[in-house]
Amino acid sequence: ANALEKKTNFNQELFNKAQSEGKIVVVSSWIKYCSSCASQIKVLNKAKKEFDNIEYFTFEVTNKKISSLLNVQYQTTLLIYKDNKEVYRSIGETSRDAIYKAIKSSI
């Protein structure tokens, strides 16, 4: 199995910009050595390519600044924002079908 590169690319400015441009913003949290996080990130990286108008950010849940901004306590938390509002939140969801369904319902 190839290890997935996990890195924080969440940036408050880009997050706000994507929302002001009317994009669907998907955010996921991860932590080192978390296999469910890696599975979720894989699905979301594919989704980003398959759906139009999506911006995808990821961050390490130990980053207190981002965690408190988004009110996230756990890794593998998936958030979807539309029109500057959180429209979806789940914890531990790694199923491609469930994640794609959540994104589709947000578009």
Which helices and strands occur, and which strands form pairs?
Blueprint: H1 12-20, E1 24-30, H2 35-50, E2 54-60, H3 64-70, E3 77-82, E4 85-91, H4 96-106
Parallel strand pairs: 1-2
Antiparallel strand pairs: 1-3, 3-4
In round numbers, the mean pLDDT is: 94
Structural class: alpha+beta
Described by strand count, sense and barrel closure, the largest sheet is:
4 strands, mixed
The total of helices stands at 4
Shape descriptor reads globular
Q: What would you report as the Rg, rounded to the nearest angstrom?
A: 13 Å
Assembly state of the chains shown: single chain
The strand count comes to 4
Q: Name the helicity range.
A: 40-55%
Strand order of the largest sheet: 2-1-3-4
List unreliable stretches of 5+ residues: none
Task: Give the DSSP E fraction (strand runs of 2 or more residues).
Answer: 25-35%
Please report the distance between the alpha carbons of the first and last residues: 33 Å
Run of helices and strands: HEHEHEEH
Describe what you observe in this structure.
With 107 residues, the protein is an alpha+beta fold. The chain has helices at residues 12-20, 35-50, 64-70, 96-106; strands at 24-30, 54-60, 77-82, 85-91. It starts with 11 loop residues before the first helix and ends with a helix. It is built from 4 helices and 4 strands. The radius of gyration is 13 Å and the shape is globular. A 4-stranded mixed β-sheet has the order 2-1-3-4, sandwiched between helices. Helices cover 40% and strands 25% of the residues.
